[in-house]
Predict the 3D structure of the following.
Amino acid sequence: MSQNGTYRIGTGAGFSSDRLDPAIDLVKRGQLNTIIFECVGERTLAFGHRDRAANPNLGYNALLETRLRALLPLCQAHGTRLITNMGVANPDAAAQLTVRIAQELGLSGLRIAAVTGDDVRTLIHDESPLHEPSCTVAETGRSILGANAYLGADAIIPALEDDAHVVITGRVADPSLFLAPIMHHFNWTTDDWTRLGAGTLVGHLMECAAQVTGGYFADPGFKSVPNLAYVGFPLAEVSSNGDAVITKLPGTGGLVSTQTVKEQMLYEVHDPSAYLTPDVKADFSSVEISDVGNDRVRVSNAGGTTRPNDLKVTVAFDGGYLAEAEVSYAGPGAVQRATLAGDIVRDRIRNVHGVHLPCRTDLVGLNAIHELEASRDSDIRDVRLRAVLRCNDRKAAEALLWEVEALLCCGPAGGGGYRGQIDPSVLTYSTFLDRKHVSSETEILTV
Amino acid sequence: MTRTIELRQIAHARAGDKGNRSNVSVFAYDPKDFPLIMAQVTPSYIKSQFGHLLRGGIQRFPLPQLHGINLVMDEALGGGVNESLNLDSHGKSWSFLILSLPIELDQETSLGSDRNTT
């Protein structure tokens, strides 16, 4: 399976709702040692806690069953290990579901690991300090949905040492999902900071799947991407010193270029010389990126120093509701009519419904996103009024939808295409815990 | 005599977010244009153009071997995904906000990668 001594690792998902067909293709044709499905964000984790509170058998990724029904037989046939954080807020339930799926598919000889220990809710109390904004848990005045520490590669390695074919975790730092099997394969030690930095770079480049193979990149006329509708997911060929080639399968859409790799290297990075994970303080500031042809880009020269002692913890709170409602105005005077409609909604939310929270109105198509000054006598003839409100009281959310819908008969001429939606809202804040208080556990289930 | 182009003519960019902080990486298409980016895409200039949206401090990390910079912008996402009422609460399009920066050129300046100069 390994070619020229390299370790072949692919990405099967880069976020909770990512596509499935590129993952299937990678396992079928990629000769992978391991495939990673990274499916947890701070908000998906908060919603996982909400689901688990409602039903103790839920709280994992909603696409877990769809993905694993397709992937388990292929991974077993090709000898590819699958590592995923699709356990989200309930890795044990996700592992038990995986066992049932394997049984229903008639598979046997599978070892399925559940990695837990990231749930640190019992270590968070009223006086726990939060960051950005700086306050205590009690001062938020809100109820906690859950609290999870970012585990590192060391939480996954025991499952690999125990020959797990499938590893299911909750919150693990995204690059650590990739670093763990690379460390395990090459027997890197947990204080080999330079190599851990290099492996972390590989994980960071790979963790968002298509974002390194031409997704989140195309800008027609400036940056063209071939066959973006069928963009392939990435594959890394990692060498024993941590250098790697980032590539994708032949015949897939997208591209791997120095441009896609450079953009992804700094994605969600602040100081490139100090990228902190639970495993290492990685240094990307001197990384070299070179195109070696045919959608193959070599990355080298990442570095690293001692890992942080504290682990980052995300604390999620109930955030009430986010209400959004929209209606369109088109033709001559569209901007003026939509502006009048927005003024009416803000007036009535405050003065008829007594809701004194910020109610924002935008003209989508004019200046809704970048909030730049736009001429109100603009001759743009197709705009959408959007009204939005965050609130703890569901009645206020319903009032917003009611007022926007009522514009159809009571508002300016020619308003149409009303849509309204109320979503539960979550708030996520960070804190830190000394790593000595956090320990992971691994349970192996067999089929 | 000077002429003005948008940064998009000479550079590509990507936006990321963490809380209420946005980062936008900016890379010259042609290494020859990197000094122009270093000279003009400065925190103070960005703040002067887009301070209504990018409300906090701006740090810039140069990566000369990659002909790029990383811009880290505090209080740039209307409170972040927790609190923002902006339709793009992650600031995914902040890359194109930065790429719309006007860049001033001397008339005789020739660009490495000038794609449709007006």
Remarks:
- The mean pLDDT of chain A is 96.
- The first strand of chain A starts at residue 7 and ends at 13.
